[in-house]
Design brief:
Distance between the termini of chain A: 46 Å
Helix content of chain B: 25-40%
CATH topology of the largest domain in chain A: Aspartate Aminotransferase, domain 2
Shape of chain A: globular
Strand content of chain B: 5-15%
Radius of gyration of chain A: 25 Å
Helix content of chain A: 25-40%
Order of helices and strands of chain A: HHHHHEHEHEHEHEEEEEHEHHEEHHH
Structural class of chain A: alpha/beta
Distance between the termini of chain B: 60 Å
Strand content of chain A: 5-15%
CATH architecture of the largest domain in chain B: 3-Layer(aba) Sandwich
CATH class of the largest domain in chain B: Alpha Beta
CATH superfamily of the largest domain in chain B: Type I PLP-dependent aspartate aminotransferase-like (Major domain)
Number of helices of chain B: 15
Number of helices of chain A: 15
Number of domains of chain A: 2
Order of helices and strands of chain B: HHHEHHHEHEHEHEHEEEEEHHEEHEEEHH
Shape of chain B: globular
Number of domains of chain B: 2
Number of strands of chain A: 12
Number of strands of chain B: 15
Largest sheet of chain B: 7 strands, mixed
CATH topology of the largest domain in chain B: Aspartate Aminotransferase, domain 2
CATH architecture of the largest domain in chain A: 3-Layer(aba) Sandwich
CATH superfamily of the largest domain in chain A: Type I PLP-dependent aspartate aminotransferase-like (Major domain)
Oligomer: heterodimer
CATH class of the largest domain in chain A: Alpha Beta
Largest interface: A-B, 200 and 201 residues
Structural class of chain B: alpha/beta
Strand order of the largest sheet of chain A: 1-7-6-5-4-2-3
Strand order of the largest sheet of chain B: 2-8-7-6-5-3-4
Chain lengths: ~500, ~450
């Protein structure tokens, strides 16, 4: 059988060694202006602290550097090339105007310690974005300081702890559903809380009865992702919030899946006390190959006194400033004010959308996930029939009979010109295929994706060995991860 | 909305295909009482040109094109233009974390090169793929030492960046980790006698910064000796990465926790920046953050993968070494390109220019005010004590579109009217002379001398 691959065609790309292998003495890519102050005697100034040996730093020319990184870039898949359906990662279009405005001189070259009267532009950006995010989440206050989602979780749990501490007892445990991302329990441990697992019910939602029996005065908070990692909205969210609040606990929401809610429903309205957002997911800042992220934490009024320092305030004369004097604050979680460059981008995205655009975006994201779900039902097992919001989770149950697992299907998808979906997560679905198309996909791109997935399902029936050996078209085949971990080679060394 | 690739007919066709009457059907799982029945209170949808105008206005309100004497953990260095040309390629900009190695070799190989160059520059054996920033890197390094030694306290020098210490305090408080702070001497360096008394058998690590917050280079050997003879680890924080071109790296350290912002990362009002942790090979399994390793594919061809993931949260959940998921890949790529552009010779020459500008500035300021901590070598920052409040001097300088040094009263009240000044290769002699002129106008400052003119060639 010859598969029909409509999206991608093989083409030649360049080989490229490590930069160190191109280096030779005397090549260079820099030039400094002449010094306008007297030269100095380094040895005299630094004495024993002077560095004599620069190790094996490379020496290469500018054209070599351009080619080096350009060649390597062509080995990456990217949103700019096509659908990137990683579940719970929200790989949406990264608008280019965001990049332009973040590089404007006063913003890109603004120093975090420059005086407030020449920082009004940056402060206005912080304030405007904060106001937008507060209304989007339905909360009362926000900190933009956390550098990523996990850092936001950490900050959020510090606020939880401070809140309980103020009542005389920090409590001991955090409840976390078994469908949650691994960061949630890791964060709880970092803040010194014990983790107690919460079982999901047969519909993939929080088992409300189990929650009621597990909730007591030792539980500080429930960390809930809503919609959860199955893409399912927790329909009994009001009961969940009530159970938590009745015993003095807080409801923390992991905002990883906020792309399903913006402009349609606000967590603050359904009982959430605090939550983090991922600006690199919902608000279109680029993932950049794994960062930078940004993880603002929005809170209800009761938690506001504990927010990290500083916070942005409006002074009597109408100018903006930083307030440091906050005796109840949990302290700082990062130097300066957070990943400001990401705030610029997230705000540019919000301005480009406006209220109508944000709502339409959410609607399209949910529409797309349901289209994929409809298209693949029958070809892949759907373990939970509960309605999907912005993502859908299948399992490899049908394909596993032929010995083909979710990771193999994912690798074969690469040959069809797509980035794989999220594999083997959430843990409550054995062999999960977690698919989030986002609003950025056209009907045409999704039709190609559905065709590809269906074609792979047929290949599994007819030639499972071929799927098991995929990908067949990439510049490297499957890499030996076991060897990489057993004898780690983590840096280049001269041979 | 212009980012959405669907026509009304497409939406209708999709609704029909999935058997929904309207989009509202898809939101039916959300209880009606919680649905938002109004527009969000965000500004109206703007044209691209309006967005650019709005941010241009903000840029103008933000010290656009001012000369700058601020450092203190964020440094204004020249950024070679090819950094932005290369990181703007969609294949770098719009890729996810390289979990699917076969279609992520570009990101993976570049991180491998980044790790390798950080090792070359710091004198360490392994480096991770990057951390949030210097403050969290320093803090995570301390936590790493706690895990490795099994000891439950830390000692930190008071001349470590005050905001780094604040972050450490936040983390340490919730880990029940006592942190002892050690004073600095008249040379600006950590007080070795007090350090000697503070380090004991319960100390997991000593955290110092070099060059420290005052720009002074620490005697790392002496500190290492005190830490190591007590079985404690030495963590050295470096916030000015360009110093590595000319200052001997802390080879005696067990962990180096860096801020690589100086390597081609814009000041950006404080972030995103690029933390890094580098350490000894034997400690790698307790190191937080992502790591890229070299391996081979099924045909024996060289390739790169994320490795040692069993330390990380997505595998280990609550037993992970840290809750960190992301690194700062795109920012690390800026640093990577910067290190490649300057390379072996350029980094040294660049650092030398920083040293020369700073030496000149310190000498000139010294004629009219007191330059503190002159007893030890410094890199590109120095503390000036004036008769007048530095805020007043700075406000005069602002009139010349110059942002003066950082007043230190907030962090070190005992230093009085002191400010931390920084010069880089971008600081012009004219700006230095103007700033010195403003200091000389302070009531009670030493008389302006004619030497300023004499130094000019």
């Amino acid at each position: 059988m010859k598969p029909v691959i409509r999206k991608a065609t093989r083409h030649v790309n360049q080989n490229e060694g490590l930069i160190f292998e191109k280096s030779s003495a005397g090549k260079f890519a820099w030039r400094l202006p002449p010094l306008d102050v007297p030269e100095v005697d380094t040895a005299k100034l630094l004495g024993a602290a002077e560095r004599k040996d620069m190790g094996h730093m490379p020496e290469v020319s500018e054209i070599e550097i351009i080619r080096h990184f350009t060649r390597m870039s062509t080995w990456n898949y990217a949103i700019d090339l096509g659908m990137y359906p990683l579940g719970s990662c929200t790989m949406k279009y990264n608008p280019r105007v965001n990049e332009v405005v973040s590089r404007l001189d006063g913003l890109a070259n603004g120093h975090p310690y420059q005086p407030e009267n020449v920082s009004q532009g940056a402060l206005r950006i912080l304030k405007t974005l904060s106001d937008c995010l507060i209304d989007i989440t339905g909360m009362d206050a926000i900190t933009l300081q956390p550098a990523a989602g996990a850092h936001g979780e950490f900050t959020g749990l510090l606020l939880v702890r401070a809140h309980h501490q103020s009542k005389g007892h920090a409590r001991k445990k955090i409840l976390i559903p078994d469908s949650a991302h691994g960061t949630n329990p890791a964060t709880a441990a970092t803040v010194g809380y014990a983790v107690e697992n919460l079982k999901s019910n047969t519909q993939g939602m929080v088992d409300v009865a189990a929650l009621a029996s597990q909730m007591n005065e030792e539980v500080a908070a429930l960390m809930l992702t809503n919609p959860n990692t199955l893409g399912v909205f927790e329909q009994e969210i009001h009961k969940i919030a009530d159970i938590m609040h009745a015993k003095g606990g807080l409801l923390y929401m992991d905002g990883a899946n906020m792309n399903a809610l913006v402009g349609k429903v606000r967590p603050g309205d359904f009982g959430v006390d605090l939550m983090h957002l991922n600006l690199h997911k919902t608000f279109s800042t680029p993932h950049g190959g794994g960062g930078p992220g940004s993880g603002p934490v929005a809170v209800k009024k009761i938690l506001e006194p504990y927010l990290p320092t500083p916070v942005v305030i409006t002074r009597a004369d109408g100018t903006l400033g930083f307030e440091y004097n906050r005796p109840q604050s949990v302290g700082r979680v990062r130097a300066f004010y957070g990943n400001f460059g990401m705030f610029v981008r997230a705000l540019a995205y919000t301005l480009a959308n406006g209220p109508d655009g944000l709502r339409q975006t959410t609607e399209d994201a949910v529409l797309n996930a349901n289209y994929i779900r409809k298209g693949l039902e029958g070809s892949y097992d759907l373990p939970y029939a509960t309605p999907s919001m912005h993502e859908v989770v299948f399992s490899d149950k049908l394909q596993a009979k032929k010995g083909v697992r979710t990771m193999d299907i994912a690798k074969r998808l690469i040959d069809y010109g797509f980035h794989p979906y999220t594999t083997a997560f959430p843990l409550i679905v054995p062999g999960a295929l977690m698919i989030e198309p986002t609003e950025s996909e056209s009907k045409e791109e999704m039709d190609l994706f559905i065709d590809a997935m269906k074609s792979i399902a047929e290949e599994v029936e007819e030639d499972p060995e071929m799927v098991l050996a995929a990908p067949h078209t990439t510049r490297v085949s499957r890499l030996d991860e076991v060897a990489a971990a057993r004898k780690p080679v983590l840096r280049w060394k001269p041979s | 909305m212009r980012y959405l690739p669907k026509s009304p007919a497409d939406r209708e066709a999709i609704l029909k295909a999935i058997g929904a009457r309207s989009i509202d059907d898809l939101f039916a799982p959300i209880p009606a009482e919680y649905r938002l029945n109004r527009d969000l209170k965000v500004p109206r949808q703007m044209a691209e040109s309006e967005i650019v105008d709005w941010f241009r206005e903000r840029s103008r309100e933000n010290g656009d094109s001012y000369a700058m004497f601020l450092g203190a953990g964020a440094y204004y260095h020249y950024r070679p233009v090819i950094i932005d040309s290369l990181i703007s390629r969609g294949e770098f900009l719009t890729a996810y974390t390289p979990y699917q190695a076969e279609i992520s070799q570009g990101t993976l190989q570049s991180i491998f090169e980044f790790q390798s160059m950080i090792c070359e520059l710091t004198g360490m054996e392994v480096a991770n793929a990057s951390m949030y920033d210097g403050s969290t890197a320093a803090t995570e390094a301390v936590m790493m030492a706690v895990r490795l030694t099994g000891r439950r306290s830390a000692v930190v020098a008071r001349n470590v960046h005050p905001e780094y210490r604040e972050v450490l305090a936040t983390y340490a408080f919730h880990q029940d980790l006592p942190v002892t702070t050690v004073a600095f001497t008249d040379s600006g360096r950590v007080d070795l006698k007090e350090l000697e008394k503070s380090v004991n058998q319960d100390t997991a690590c000593v955290l110092i910064q070099s060059p420290n917050f005052f720009g002074t280079i620490e005697d790392v050997n002496a500190v290492a000796e005190i830490a190591h003879k007590n079985g404690a680890m030495l963590v050295v924080s470096i916030s000015e990465a360009v110093s590595l071109g000319i200052v001997e790296p802390p080879r005696q350290a067990d962990v180096v926790a860096m801020e690589a912002q100086s390597f081609g990362v814009p000041l950006g009002f404080g972030g995103p920046y690029c933390g890094v942790i580098a350490t000894r090979e034997k400690y790698v399994r307790q190191m937080p953050g992502r790591l890229v390793g070299q391996t081979t594919d099924s045909n024996g061809k060289r390739g790169f993968v994320l490795t040692l993931a069993t330390r990380e949260q997505h595998i280990r959940r609550e037993k992970a070494t840290s809750n960190i998921c992301t690194n700062q890949a795109l920012v690390a790529l800026m640093a990577n390109i910067f290190m490649t552009v300057y390379g072996k010779v350029g980094l040294k020459e660049l650092a030398k220019q920083n040293l020369a500008k700073t030496a000149y500035a310190a000498q000139q300021f010294g004629k009219h005010a007191k330059v503190l901590f002159s007893g030890a070598p410094r890199f590109n920052e120095f503390v000036v004590q004036t008769s007048e409040d530095p805020l007043a001097i700075n406000s005069r300088l602002l009139g010349h579109k110059i942002i003066g040094g950082l007043p230190l009263k907030k962090f070190y009240p005992e230093l009085g009217n002191a400010a931390l000044w920084c010069c880089t290769e971008l600081t012009s002699r004219a700006a230095i002379d103007t700033a010195v002129g403003m200091v000389s106008e302070s009531p009670g400052s030493a008389k302006p001398s004619r030497e300023v003119a004499e130094v000019t060639r």
